[in-house]
Amino acid sequence: MSARFRGKSVLVTGAASGIGKATVDLFADEGANVIAVDLTPTAKPEPARVGSIMTVDGNAGDEREVAAMVATAVERHGGLDIICANAGISGGMAGLFEQSAEDWLSLLQVNLIGPFLAIKHGAKAMMDAGRPGAIVCTASVAGLRAGAGGLAYSASKAGVINLVQGAAQQLTGSGIRVNAVCPGLVDTGMTQDLYTAARSKGREDLIGQLNPLKRGGEPAEIARTIAFLASDEAAYINGQALVVDGGLSTSLPFAKPRKLGQASF
Ligand SMILES: NC(=O)c1ccc[n+]([C@@H]2O[C@H](COP(=O)([O-])OP(=O)(O)OC[C@H]3O[C@@H](n4cnc5c(N)ncnc54)[C@H](O)[C@@H]3O)[C@@H](O)[C@H]2O)c1
């Protein structure tokens, strides 16, 4: 097992499930000391790691709690090197006329204000300690164009993509990089209903049918991208949104080619 992140202090939100959990495991396996934050009480960390995991209950959309989780990382691990602002909620697929301003506010509080708070408090801690670091926010292909989530969800993820651009600019000269990952469909708690429905009908082949790889993604595939963006291998990547979707977003919705290698029209 490589120790790419040996001794690094890492904070991950939305850490108890799916992409966040896979991200925590990857960083800890590669030597990092991870503060794993989630709303829900999290399982006890497994001891056999190169690094360490400390689970913390906290709300990634609450400014005081975000400040407290950053302070915990700094106190416990002597600073903060990497933040993964990953916590998110889907908000369901209610239509335009069924949504209220309150629905939007509660979703934006987690999905967009959460990453803003992580950047604000995390970057401050990094700068105070004179430690250039990396921040990776989990956006989504839903933020690139409509159709992959509810209206508020898509708007929140489009906001995250813009947020990392603006934050990268405002942190000019700090050495702190801010990027986003845009997953396509991934098998996690958030998509459990969809996966369960397809599996229960014996129609797993429908999952990911719209992308050229014709499958859904695994949480570990997104975690590896997050780790790449946080690593020194991505030292010159800043303010970007890296899409990891099996090719889903490469095409407008034309008919699929009938034969391999053929154009689709
Ligand atoms: N699964 C997908 O297909 C997919 C695709 C694109 C983007 N994403 C994004 O990936 C991120 C992770 O989601 P996932 O798919 O792993 O879902 P998940 O439901 O498996 O995990 C999300 C975790 O975030 C936690 N969480 C929710 N609100 C929180 C809050 N306010 N504070 C702290 N923790 C909170 C939940 O308790 C849960 O453990 C989200 O931002 C989501 O929007 C997921």
Q: Please count the helical segments.
A: 7
Structural class: alpha/beta
* Adjacency order of strands in the biggest sheet: 3-2-1-4-5-6-7
**Total number of domains:** 1
- Helix fraction, binned, reads 25-40%
The best one-word shape is: globular
Largest sheet: 7 strands, parallel
Which CATH first-tier class would you pick? Alpha Beta
- CATH H-tier superfamily: NAD(P)-binding Rossmann-like Domain
Low-confidence stretches: none
Named CATH architecture: 3-Layer(aba) Sandwich
The total strand number stands at 7
The CATH topology label is Rossmann fold
Radius of gyration: 18 Å
How widely separated are the two ends?
Answer: 47 Å
Order of helices and strands: EHEEHEHHEHEHHE
**Beta-strand residue fraction:** 5-15%
Residue-averaged pLDDT: 94
User: What ions, cofactors and ligands are bound?
Assistant: nicotinamide-adenine-dinucleotide
Report on this structure.
The protein has helices at 18-29, 63-77, 101-111, 113-128, 151-170, 192-200, 219-230; strands at residues 9-13, 33-38, 52-57, 82-85, 134-138, 177-183, 241-244. The chain has 265 residues and is α/β, with parallel strands linked by helices. It has a single domain (9-244), classed as Rossmann fold. Strands 3-2-1-4-5-6-7 form a seven-stranded parallel β-sheet, with helices on both faces. β5, α5 (151-170) and β6 (177-183) form a beta-alpha-beta unit. The radius of gyration is 18 Å and the shape is globular. The model has no long low-confidence stretch (mean pLDDT 94).
